[in-house]
Amino acid sequence: MDTFAKVELTQDLVESSFPLADLNTLLTSLSNYFDVPITLVTVIEGQWQHLIAKHGILVDKTPEQDAFCKRLIKHNKSLLIPDTSLDENYANNPLVTGEPHIRSYLGVPFRIDGKPIGGVCLIDTKPKNYAERDIHLLETISGLITTILELQKNYSLYLEDQELIRFSPIVLIKWKYNNGLHIRTVSPNIERVIGIDTFNLCSGEIHFEDLLTESSVEKFHFNLQNHLAGLEASEILLEMELDSKQIWIRMITVAHFNHEGRMTSIQAFITENTAQKYTEDKLNETNRQMRLLLEASELGTWDWNIPADINKVNKKWCDMLGIEFEYVETSVNYFRQLIHPTDRSHVETNLAQHLQGLTDAYTTSYRMKHADGHWVWIETYGKVVERDNSGRALRLAGTHRDITDRMEAQLQERKQKQLLSFISKAQSAYLKTGDLSKSCREILEELIDIADSQFALIGELEHSAGVPRLFIHAISEMQWNDLSSQLVQRYYDNDLYFTDFNNLFGSVILTRETVISNERGKHPASKGTPKGHPRISKFLGLPIKLNGELIGMIGLANKFFDYTEEDAQFLQPLVDSLAGLYYAVKLDKERQEAENKLLELAMTDTLSGLPNRRAFMEKAAEVGEISFPYLIGMVDIDNFKSINDTYGHDAGDKAIKLIAHTIKDALRSDDFTARMGGEEFAFVLLDATYGSSSSLIETIRKSISDLEITLSEEKSIHLTVSIGVKAVLPEMEKMSITGHLNDADKALYEAKHTGKNKVVWFK
Questions:
Q1: Is the model's pLDDT at 155 over the cut of 80?
Q2: Distance between CA 286 and CA 297 in Å, rounded?
Q3: How far, CA to CA in Å, does 44 sit from each of 10, 58, 65, 388, 409?
């Protein structure tokens, strides 16, 4: 807070220009808490101590010379006097010997911006002492009082400003920018000044752009593009079509940027300008009627009288910009406003350097606005031809040349190089990560930039149950309601698909052709956008094909100028590159699926359908690294050779299949089993001990012994198995999985040689 603001606040406190009732209530509570009859907030001004808030006393001010808080202001620290009758500085003070008979006093400075201007005081008519915590509490309350008073002052100023705006002819609008403009606040006088319903505008029922004519929408978006490019302030004239009338408004826009230089909001000041625009139109019409023959010169010339601010130009100069020569304005500010907003800075820098004598000539290239609305590239050459005795430039003359064709050719060449680099980056990103979606998202911002657009999407066509759907690899993030937020989350989860093709981008899928739409609502597939969604005014959809088959698309929206077939042709190399990437990904997926199938076949026992010995050993080796108990077991079919010899190998195969399914069905989903070869099986039970799993293993044994294997209508057989199990505990000495398996095999051997059809645990 500066000195002037402090003085103003002090005077407001003394004059009570805003409510202090709440402060008096606070002092009453203070008096009750500290059990004192008098509490004050004082301010020293001139020869008086003003009691701006008080409890327990009636007077409003006392002489400055008697004020205790003078000492607070002088030393800027708390003052405690337990008994004024014993203090030589205050024993004879009129406020002690007379009303209010101060006997004890505790005061802390009342500060504004760290500098004391008065005090917060506790006064008693009898001696009283205070603890250090009481002083600290009072200091805290003093700071809170300062904050309260400053907030009350600011609120009073805010109410005054609102009242001023209510009767002002200037309308204030503030937009938040997040991949589109969203109105945050509108001054309430907009309905009186312009005739727009405030509620509909703020609620999103209507967009500001919806009230503009088509040509003014173009100007509004162009202004937005300039702000996005870094332009801080701008001024534009817009035409509005309201229900009952057509008006013109003049809008001054100011952009705000974050620390990264990205625009976050736009604030606009709007005035109704219909009468002035009518006058300007009449003048322009008169100018067109009185236009003379154009000069034949190939160069435009100009001659600027700097002190008089008169710039004379020839007819060719005017021809380049479609301006009537006879009525062209001579002020340099007129020429300045024709320069493209993003070019003004370097034009003025080069001009200033030459006027100061820092360069031999004034040379620069920039864009100027033609009368019909398009931009013309101008090459300027000039020199100071007259200076005064002090070296100050008096006259600057030079030439203009239209270099639009050359600059557009250079721009096209630069964009071609940028596109080739861009395509290379996309391919490199995929080769580096193997993630096509991530690669597309990395290049999305560059795609938007190179296509001069605001929004973009890259999608791949898939079919699910014969129904087409577009998988979204990359899309401009646009959150405008709860539903869109859910879509964005699905996008981040790589699960965003579009299945509704009854819209502009869907027309690319349905027609398999390039789609161009430059007039909002005119294309047959244009169905509008969801409520609150950023406006889509222009659209370019590019099909991605491979061998004539549609496999995806690129969508672009809201280019400032119209999309053209040339744009589609320019981006065709990117389209072809993405087609190649999609095909590469498809081949890679097919190869991976084939490898997985081969691996599955290599790891599966074809007879039983269980994993084979190799698969079991790999899985069991992973289990060997865990830190919780598990069981490893071996299962062998008793007398299996006699079954093959007696009933044939078909019976043996049938027995192996049935026992494999019985073991697998008995285990939990986290456990696993395998056929180790011949009539042997193995299993691992995770997070298991003898106590928790012995009954399960016994159940497996019994279930197999109860099986009846039917060989024919007259013949069936019964089988039994022997099982050896080892319990592996974390505290055991480290051993390879082969070692644990050998121990389980030893237990199996014991089961086979001690009667069969039993479970034996390794000890």
A1: no
A2: 25
A3: 9, 18, 10, 59, 75
Q: Which of 33, 30, 34 is nearest to 129 (CA)?
A: 34
Are 292 and 327 contacting, i.e. CB atoms less than 8 angstroms apart? Answer: no
CA dihedral sign of residues 471, 474, 475, 478: positive
The partner residues of 683 in beta bridges, in order of sequence, read 633, 673
Q: What is the length of the chain?
A: 763
Q: Do 125 and 16 contact (CB within 8 A), yes or no?
A: no
State the burial class of residue 131 (Cβ atoms within 10 Å of its Cβ: 0-12, 13-18, 19+): exposed
The pair phi, psi for residue 158, each rounded to 5°, is -60, -45
The span from the first CA to the last CA of the chain, in angstroms, equals: 85
DSSP readout, 396-425?
EEEEEEE-HHHHHHHHHHHHHHHHHHHHHH
Q: Quick one: pLDDT at residue 156?
A: 73
What does the alpha-carbon distance between residue 748 and residue 723 come to, in Å, rounded to a whole number?
Answer: 5
Q: Please count the other Cβ atoms lying within 10 Å of the Cβ belonging to residue 726.
A: 25
The single-letter code of the amino acid at 735 is: M
Helix and strand counts by DSSP (H, E) for the chain: 23, 29
CA distances from 249 to 221, 245, 273, 305, 397 (A): 16, 13, 5, 34, 36
Residue 758 and residue 741: Cα distance in Å, rounded? 18
Q: Residues 544, 550: contact at Cβ < 8 Å?
A: yes
526/507 Cα distance (integer angstroms): 9
Three-state DSSP class for residue 539: strand
Residues 6+ apart with CB under 8 A from 710: 716
Q: How far apart are CA 152 and CA 214, in angstroms?
A: 47
Q: Is the separation of the CB atoms in 38 and 32 below 8 Å? A: no
440-486 tens-digit pLDDT: 888 888 888 888 888 889 889 988 888 899 998 888 866 555 666 67
> How many Cα atoms within 13 Å fall on the side-chain side of residue 53?
29
Say if residues 578 and 552 touch (Cβ distance below 8 Å).
yes
- Segment 209-241, tens digit of pLDDT: 888 998 999 999 999 999 999 999 999 999 998
CA distances from 284 to 273, 274, 277, 280, 580 (A): 16, 15, 10, 6, 55
Pair 627, 619: CB distance under 8 Å: no
- What is the C-alpha separation between 199 and 215, in angstroms, rounded? 26
DSSP conformation letters of 219-245: HHHHHHHHHHTT--EEEEEEEEE-SS-
Q: Quote the CA–CA distance of 591 and 330 in Å, as a whole number.
A: 73
Of 471, 470, 428, nearest to 446 by C-alpha is 428
Pairing status of strand 721-728 against strand 759-761: parallel
Using CA atoms, how far apart are residues 127 and 80, in angstroms rounded to an integer? 11
Do the Cβ atoms of 95 and 102 come closer than 8 Å?
Answer: yes
By C-alpha distance, which of 479, 474, 419, 475 is closest to 449?
Answer: 419
Task: Tell me the one-letter amino acid at 341.
Answer: P
- The CA distance from 761 to 763, in Å, is 6
Helix, strand or coil for residue 489? Answer: helix
The 3-state DSSP class for residue 15 equals helix
pLDDT for 264-280, tens place per residue?
999 999 988 888 777 77
Instruction: For residue 562, give both structure tokens.
Output: 């119209």
Helix (H) or strand (E) holding 462: strand 455-464
184, 176 contact by CB (below 8 A): yes
Given this model, what pLDDT does residue 577 score? 81
Cβ–Cβ under 8 Å, residues 495 and 523: no
Residue 74 one-letter amino acid: K
